[in-house]
Hints:
Structural class: alpha+beta
Number of strands: 24
Radius of gyration: 30 Å
Strand order of the largest sheet: 2-3-4-1-7-8-9
Oligomer: single chain
Largest sheet: 7 strands, mixed
CATH architecture of the largest domain: Orthogonal Bundle
Amino acid sequence: MKSLILAEKPSVARDIARVLNCKKNSPGAIEGDNYIVTWALGHLVTLADPEEYDKQWKEWNMDVLPMVPKKWELVVIKQTASQYRHVKEQLFRKDVSEVIIATDAGREGELVARWILDKAGCHKPIKRLWISSVTDKAIREGFEHLKDGRQYNKLYRAAGARAEADWLVGINATRALTCKYNAQLSCGRVQTPTLAIIARREKEIRQFKPADYYGLICSSVSGKHRVTWTWQHQKNGSLRSFNRDFISDLEKQLRTASLQINSVHTSTKKVLSPGLYDLTELQRDANRRFGFSAKETLNIMQRLYENHKVLTYPRTDSRYIGQDIVPTIRERLKACCTGPYKQYIPALLKGPLHTNKSFVDDKKINDHHAIIPTEEYVRLEYMTNEERKIYDLVVRRFISVLYPPFEYEQTCMKASACKQTFAAKGKITLAAGWRQLYDTEIILEEEEANEAGDFLSSEQPLPKLTPGESLPVSETKITFGKTKPPARFTEASLLSAMENPVKYMESDDLKARKTLGETGGLGTVATRADIIEKLFRSFLVEKKGNELFLTSKGKQLLELVPDDLKKPELTASWEMQLSDISQGKREKNSFMKEITAYTEELIHEIRTSDGAFRHDNITNTKCPRCGKRMLAVNGKNARLLVCQDRECGYRETIARTSNARCPNCHRKMEIIKKGDEETFVCACGYKEKMSAFKARRAKEGAGVSKRDIQKYLKKQNSESVNTSFADALAGIKLGD
């Protein structure tokens, strides 16, 4: 008899099959003497749509709400139905005596496998492979210590409760809002609080009143050194004052004064490398550095993981690796010792590798460890420019955690003059450590991004001074500025807010706050990118430059949605209860009764509300399908006309943002299509027909073809991925 192993992804299935010596390929499976390995493609089975339960539910009608299934039904997802049939065929083979679940070690991974077994009606004995990485060693050890599948029944019940609750609340509330206001309005437990976070930031910006502030710096000379001193508030240490007269009077007094040195403190400091990447941190950096959206970064990572096989599983919320990965680090370094990394890796390979708790900790790994390179030898020339950028981020982080800390000597001096305190800082680099992997500009950008408010310049060389010395003031200068409102969200900062939404909670419930922090905030690392994309697709949020703005539709939706759905507290409450279900402290049925009652309350609140929704973006263009006037909306990278009738659903793109730059102001131009002619249009007023653009670019390219560009890029394997010439060539858009 054989054991059937059900993995979540084909790549993991192939790894397991190789370790277990399964070599015979069959449709949707790989077979060996003792094992058969098959796989899902993410979810193969999902909860049925409303119309599958009741024919009345097919129509979007307020009278039939709320829709509460008496018995939950599972359906096979059409796009992956063929793989489901292959899995089912393997499940019911007469020579298969048991099923080993090898999906991701977590709540959703358990749901993937159990739904397949439930839909297929398979009741064979279950065992569980529970591992946090898919190295050969981890797989072997996992199969030596297989768990009884029944140990995870509670986890499955919690996963099912989460899915059913999201169905009840999300689908019913969305239909109720849409029917009530005759507009395409969608809401959900994660999507709506995320929208509310953006709205809260916009409110803070609108209500913000800038105030003028002032500071004071002065200089003194000691030997060959000119030292810059900054006035500092004696009580709170602030470098700014809102009292202009006070600063002006102090500046006048300071012109003829001397600085009395009060203290000189020198210390040696060490700064460890930033931690390894989880998906959210990688998406933040990619957005900040390259302007990639969260979804783009995830898609690129997926290709590097599945196609190139050079990076590990991307959908992880951990920034640590386990002890089982440590013995493989040397092989991983050898695999990526190419191109720009040749100057950093050999030094590590010469001696013992040093690891520490800053990035190796089994207790801080949930389903998967941090994103790191695999042992697969990398061929940079086979990657696109975008893939190389993401790969470069991950590899440099991986190498940097193995390098020594950045060490520097910092001197802090305090002096007094005119009964006020002045401070000066100086820093001397002792050892570059991990910082040698990064450009100085990148480090400075990150330091500035992390700084809040004014800061003392710490790069100046300082002379050796002792307390009691006196230095005459040689120069004074008043500095000034205006307080700034909070920055608008970018995708990078919104990801951070979704990950840590505690400060946006209205409740002071410490347990709820703690739970929301421990469970990873709003959404998961795997779903946040899709949630942000859904806000764009639903035209609730639009992008101007790199900043996110609420649309009129988004603002109105938040006024119409019941308050509970706008609060992160809802997610915290659910997660606490789901955690109790997974630990056996609570029954799933009682939780679902509460969710059903909550859904009924939501529908009643929406049905009896006296709000109104008004389209303020109606155009005079009529829909070619139904004749109603269309709405002008801004998509993420395009401007569209959308039929106002949700049942019609017609939409057309009238302009899309291109990568082509305006020859006058160098901003990205839009492509507007009229008839068969496409025209580039820039906000500065520049216009150019597509035919003229192609002719100009061909001339600028001096006959360089796409093939020539690819050949050139392949030769750059030994150069940095960020060389300006390579990037310039990669950006050339030639006509097809």
